[in-house]
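Exam revision sheet. Question 4 asks you to relate a sequence to its structure. Input first:
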Amino acid sequence: MKKTRSVLWLILFVTLFSAFIDLPKDFHFKLDFAGLRVDRRFSFENLDFKAGPINFRRPIEVKKGLDLQGGTHLVFSADMAGIKEEDRESALVSAQENIEKRVNYFGVSEAVVQTAKTNNDYRLIVELPGVKDVDQAIELIGQTAQLQFLEENPDQEAASKSGEFFLQTDLTGKDLKRSVVQFDQNTGSPVVGLEFNPEGAKKFGEITTKNTGKIVAIFLDGAPVSLPVVEEPITTGNAVIRGGFSLEEAKKLAVQLNAGALPVPVKLIEQRNIGATLGEESVEKSVRAGVIGLLFVMAFMWAYYGKLGFLADLALVSYGLITLALYKIIPVTLTLPGVAGFLLSVGMAVDANILIFERMKEEVRTGKPLKTAMELGFGRAWDSIRDANICTLITAFILFNPFNWNFLNVSGMVRGFALTLAIGIAVSLFTGVVVTRNLIRIFYRG
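Answer key, structure tokens:
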């Protein structure tokens, strides 16, 4: 019982903390009752958490997608005429990475950049929620990646005054054939291999001979992506960048370098401006329908199962508060299909309670004591709950398509639905089993 009460206090803390996160960014609390008057406005801009080396900072607001916030939907066609067949997939991914970097630099932190391929038609789909200066965004996206190799400024005193610590060379992304992930023969750790064309090999040999023991910086679109130190002159046209990379870091660096090594001209073929008014009306009606449906479900649970149903309703309230808090903390970009995914997961949460309660009733009918029936009901219902939710999570994984497989969905709307559904199911497992179970253990007496 002591352990159960400790878990209950933990549940209460998590629920109240989630309720605090769920408060609007500007919250006005006003109370005038029995001589008690409170009139205070609270403003919550960010969630800050610091503990030793951990420094967590996140805006606590719901991120709205293109359909709810409004913005611009752009479709670009990538010209692969000058790219070899075997390099086209890499070039498209490089262009995607580059555009994502640019639109985020432009201030669109919730932008969605996706790739699409049909036969020999390569496209980039860019969604920019809340963007007002569309022409500037289009111009920014349409630029070709600029990869540059810079050498250290020999005059450090002048560099400290001017801020020019690196000087340009005539070696650029046009001289780089490709960048690939390799593995060091001695240590087995991932490294990034560079292969230059004949002209680039000559330039790179001169630069490394001149800057042995110094840094030759690699910049992409004016931002540094790597600052390797030249260990010895390299005249073969093949170089290796070492830096204690993880495999993912090495892959990311190779893609960034290929963004300049494999420039892909893009052409705007479709532009749609989406207003936020339609999204606001749609989400208002969806939320209203969801609240009405949720109230009906809670009323049914209470009417049919009595005290058990009331405790399940409390767990359902906890479920809603925790889920919305996770949407803000992660954060999740909420779209209208995402709202639908959340409402569908509510049904999954209620379904778990129904399975548990019916199993409990079966055990009581066989003459078992209430406490024993409760534990057996949870234990035997768990198999059905687990299998049903795992199947739904697998479906959500396929719809979300985290690996960007071309033969599966790549739509941002569908991915939003899959993400909110998966989060909802994960939370429903917690509230349906842990929260409901502990509430029944403490408060239910039959």
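Marking note for examiners. The domain at 71-274 is CATH 3.30.1360.200 (Gyrase A; domain 2).
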